[in-house]
Model the fold of this input.
Amino acid sequence: MAGTVPLRAGRRQAAVSSAAVNESSAVKWLLVGAAGLVLLWLIVLPLTIVLTEALKQGWNVYWAALTDPDAASALRLTLLVAAITVPLNTVFGVAAAWAVAKFKFRGKGVLITLIDLPFAVSPVIAGLVYVLVFGAHGWFGPWLDAHDIKIVFAFPGIVLATLFVTFPFVARELIPLMEDQGTQEEEAALTLGARGWQIFFRVTLPNIKWGLLYGIILCNARAMGEFGAVSVVSGHIRGETNTLPLHVEILYNEYQFSASFAVASLLLLLALVTMVIKSWLERKTSY
Amino acid sequence: MSVTAKETRRGVLPGFGLTMGYSILYLSLVVLIPLAALLFNSTGLTFAKFWSVASDPRVLASYRVSLTTAAAAAFADGLFGLLLAWVLVRYRFPGKRIFDALIDLPFALPTAVAGVSLTALYSSNGWIGSLLEPLGIKVAFTPLGITLALMFIGIPFVVRTVQPVLEDMEKDTEEAAATLGAGRWRIFRKVLLPELIPPLITGFALAFARGIGEYGSVVFISGNMPMRTEIAPLLIMSKLEQYDYAGATAVALLLLLISFLMLLVINMLQRWTHKASR
Done:
């Protein structure tokens, strides 16, 4: 559900046949102009202002904000969290898609809905549930406390909350794709004597690689950019449990606007790179 | 190799047990068990306590703010999203590819970044805020600001739901209507719009569902004034900060209930959209 859109393939350009089924060119350009203004207002302006605010006090302030030790440690933490969560959810996504798309079983619809569940849950709730499980007053709180293990308000909590919010991305992308491809090629490989892993790596993986990559980059963008869920479980300790998005908030609340927007510009860059790879993949898979 | 009847019905490929087992284990550990902690309250939340929280005026106000702003934003997204999808599918124009790519940006942009940049844009000395201030329109720190933030978050949902339906539409019905003497506007209203209603409502529901749970893009621009601009997810956050775990759980349970209802509605709507586009 919310958060992702299936990879679009095979665009058809509507055939232009007669004047009767097309708007006059005045109407056309009026609509294109209006749409352009909407896009400018809703999307382009908010992007531009990140850069202008970041550079308002000049390159030195910008550079200082990015090379600040707290910013560097936030960047490290963000990269580390993504490096753990993205592979875990990728392995799950491939396994789930294999089970769902290549076999028939009862309750398939329920399983797909359950996989989608994290998209329907508010990020704040995604954080809250881990506080209820591992927090001081939670299910395992007393036990964890007795063994001196910290999960909530520490690094493991951030990883868990991120796992939750990015959980469906890869599975979501692969399930429809693998369902469309059916099982014929794999079955042919099986009759020719291929083993399970051979079938997966030689037959299935080449067929799904672009969809898989697409799911991974969307999963990664969300893992690096998640704010609400991580905010609940992080504890906001500078230099320790502060991710890049949380660092943007801290600087902003301290009225260090230029520094805040400088860090935000790094995240904007992440989003732009994600978009470029995404449209490249979309063009690659549409024919 | 002998294959039992049960296995053939399921499929002949290997790996069902492994992948299914792993999927369910991982799903349970990451999603289901933590959610169960919320549903089977671990905080000693009694029904009396739940009710006193749920009927608290501040909590009710936060739900009113969340629901009305999310609905207003999703409605506005419906209108603007239809325009954007129409232009993208029907016309050729310079810069179309960038236009198309930009629409997905709210999906990829971290919500905190959207939050701070929208606040800068609409605050009284911002580019748009300073233009609206003389007209007596305040955006930042009002429900209007929350609505604008949710519009930003929700617009791709509408465009990406309407776009494929519009692409799949055959021109024959339009041509037939034109042969019968219908004008362009009349064709749009009588022929095209009825087919676009299912995806539009689905897009609205997706944007609305995302809007009621949204946190990052809203907290900066909303000003977070109790009773006026405090959204439900933020109330959960502030109850947690005051160590009121039972209260936070109660507010979250209500929000979760609304989300699950939306998920159900969206599933039904998506089936309807698929049927309509076929």
In short: Chain A is about 75% helix and 0% strand.
